[in-house]
Amino acid sequence: MVxxxxxxxxxxxxxxxxGAASELYCVQDPKTKQVWALKHVTKDTEKDQRFLDQVAHxxxxxxxxDHPNIRRVYRIIKHRKMFKVTDISLLMxxxxxxxxxQYRPKSCLEAVEIFAQAAWALTHxxxxxxxxxxxxxxxxxxxxxxxxKIIDLGQACPIGTVKERIQGTPGYMAPEQAHRDAITPKTxxxxxxxxxxxxxxxxxxxxxxxxxxxxxxxxxxxxxxxxVEPPVPPHEKNPAVHPxxxxxxxxxxxxxxxxxxxxxxxxxxxxDLIADLLRNxxxxxxxxxEGGAA
Length: 294
Known about the structure:
Elements: E1 6-7, E2 10-19, E3 22-28, E4 35-42, H1 49-62, E5 73-81, E6 84-92, E7 97-99, H2 108-127, E8 130-131, E9 140-143, E10 148-150, E11 157-158, H3 175-178, H4 185-201, H5 234-237, H6 243-252, H7 264-279, H8 281-289
Helix pairs in contact: 2-4, 2-7, 4-6, 6-7
């Protein structure tokens, strides 16, 4: 699609990026002058039907969410030829931001504030009955004011879903995803813990579905959950990491579901507490003398 052309009545201003069988554009409504992001997916072969289905699925879930830290989806447009859907466009909130795999927090406090926003957004998803199921640094946007937006609901699903095939991202995938068990809020807790670990240590944790040795996102084969080695505590990888944050991350990536935090709300509240301690060193020292918290 060329800049200046139209998609579903919206004028293309710029090409933003590409994904699996999709293109992302900055577009403008010529009547209202409102600017949006538009994801456009084309079906070239029958195998591409799953990409159309995924976008429709993303709209169904995204339209039921209204948290400020989740990118809003507004409209789905189905393009037809001979009564068959050949393309789908998804109109979304336009966000000027970097993905968290590109953005480097300037301090532990800034990292925690970013994590807390994401955790509260996931709490909202869980309260609405959905799991994101693909939390990773590239699915978190960070704006110039460190405001956060969670994106890409293509793998999101209702709580308790058992997927027919393995879905997720190696290096962040929870054991239950690798073994096609039920997807629950604790799956997001694990994915999110692995995300926090990567941001702070710049390494992926050992998971049941690790990346290939060449660093690609291809699967290297699911391991038995009992074979997954615990990660090195992040504060040992990065001395700037607060010990309570390190403790929370390790708690979040426990292999056994029962050993993880009870809810994403608990994770969010603990992150808020850690942020408060980082802003108030005197309070942090007082807690340290009492033997720690969280």
